[in-house]
Each structure stands twice: as structure tokens, then as C-alpha cells.
Amino acid sequence: MDSKALFFFALVCFCAVALRPVFAENEEDPGLVMTFYKDSCPQAEDIIKEQVKLLYKRHKNTAFSWLRNIFHDCAVQSCDASLLLDSTRRDLSEKETDRSFGLRNFRYLDTIKEAVERECPGVVSCADILVLSARDGIVALGGPYIPLKTGRRDGRRSRADVIEQFLPDHNESISVVLDRFAAMGIDTPGVVALLGAHSVGRTHCVKLVHRLYPEVDPALNPDHVEHMFKKCPDPIPDPKAVQYVRNDRGTPMKLDNNYYRNIMDNKGLLIVDHQLANDKRTKPYVKKMAKSQDYFFKEFARAITILSENNPLTGTKGEIRKQCSVANKHH
Known about the structure:
mainly alpha; two-stranded antiparallel sheet; 13 helices; globular; heme binding; lactoperoxidase activity; secreted; peroxidase activity
């Protein structure tokens, strides 16, 4: 073999060796993809869908929880099911922070996880179960079916220490809310659509009494104030008491565009609802969604998709928890 041929052969061998780890890494970590479990657990998505249907049939409020979960988990740095972890000696659970006030039904996510584990032990992450249960919960509430990618892995620790840096509070300014979502890649119409989730569920009196006492917020519709007083008669409500106002009295169990008509009529319960209808940046989209449910659903689906893909752990990062409330090393 002459010197030129020898050099070429050596170069090809070097390139092959140098490129091998890159290809291996790509094969190892495809990132998020549609039907990630088609080979490893073909029934996974059907099991989750069936469990969501069964649980919704027995406990209607589970669907609100599925929807809130995806927001509270994915908005805080990563869609990694850190929300579901219980407190440990080192870390406070995100579930126990003020931002998570009112979140519940976590035990039903465990029910779904157990059903999946029976079929495919150690394969499907809690992070994917959280996202897919939200997708199917949205359908149960009359919302659109949103095709979502899978392949997330579970984080190993709570993010309670940074939750307030990422998750806007109900009563923060619309500017803060827009900025927080923009950091995740969600634009203004996407934010307006996501807040349409306030179409379902309820708001605890703790979160809205400052609009009633000591004086009524003049921005509130007087007809709605009477109802709010009836539901929240105490200026300092007991956080553990079942005192709340339905977000939408007309269609409280349905994800629809009635929310936008309500807030345009000054019937929004939270400061952010009122600001959404009146701020010049968001008002045009509120009007458009109030007129068209199709437009609301289109923007809602787009925003949920972006939210669900926020900085996930994939490949060899994180783990597949055996139990959603406990990292494997503590299990």
C-alpha cells in the first residue's frame, strides 16, 4: 500500500472512531418523539387514556388536577415530574409550597402509574404519565385532543427552592405572567389561551378575598360580587375549609371559551383574569377567543405542546421512577 493510500485508510479509520460516539449518543437519546413507547410498551398510552376515563367517571375533579399538573410541573425548569416528589429530609416537596395551594388528587396519578407498571415494569416515566394524563383530561373536559410527544425521564429532586422564579402567581401582574411564559417560548396569544384553563375548576376563597375585603374591588361586576360574597363570607378564610367560587358558573365542568366572555364582563375572579381582559397586549386575543372557540382551541393546543416540551430530561438523564412520589434512590 503506497503512502497516499495508507494516509487515506488511516483517515477513514480515525473518522469512523471519532464519529461512533456521536451516532451512539443520538441513537441512545432520540429526545421527545411521537409514540416513544411503541416498542417498549405498546399499550402505555391506551392504559393511561383508559385510566383517565375511569377516574374521571368516578371523580370528575380529577380532570382539573391533570390540567393543573402539567402547568405546575412543566413551567418550573423542566417537565420531569419533580412536582410529584414527596418531601425528604433535604428537600421540601413542590406540593407543599404556596404556589401549589389547592393541588390535589396526586394519589390517582399513582393509580395510573401502577396500572402501567403492571403491563411494563420500569419503562414508562412519571413525567410522561403526568403529561399524557393532562392530554386525556383535556379531552374529558371537552377540549381538543392534542398529540404530544413522549420520552421524558423523571427528575431526582424537588424544585421547590426555585418555584417562585418560574411559576407566576394568580395575582401577579400580567407583565410578569407574559415574561415567565415568554422564557419558555410561549407567546402572548399562547398565554391568553393557557389562562383559558380558568374556564374549569374553582378558586379557593383564600386567593380572592382581597378583592372583596375590606372593600370591594370596583373593577368587579356588581352582579358577580353578590355571588362571591355568598361563597366567601369570611375576610380571613380557613385554608383547609371547602370555601371556593367556581371559575365559570355557566359551564364549570367544560373547557370552553366562555371564560373570555366572563372576563370581558368583569367576572374574572383573579387579578390576572381582569388584567388579561384589559391589558392592550392581551385584550385583542381575549376578544378573538371570546368569538371563536376554534381559535381558542388552536392556540391552547399550541401552547400546551410548547409547555409539555419545556427542557425535558431524555436519554440517560434522570431515571424512570418505580413510584412517582419517591426518587428511586430513596425507594
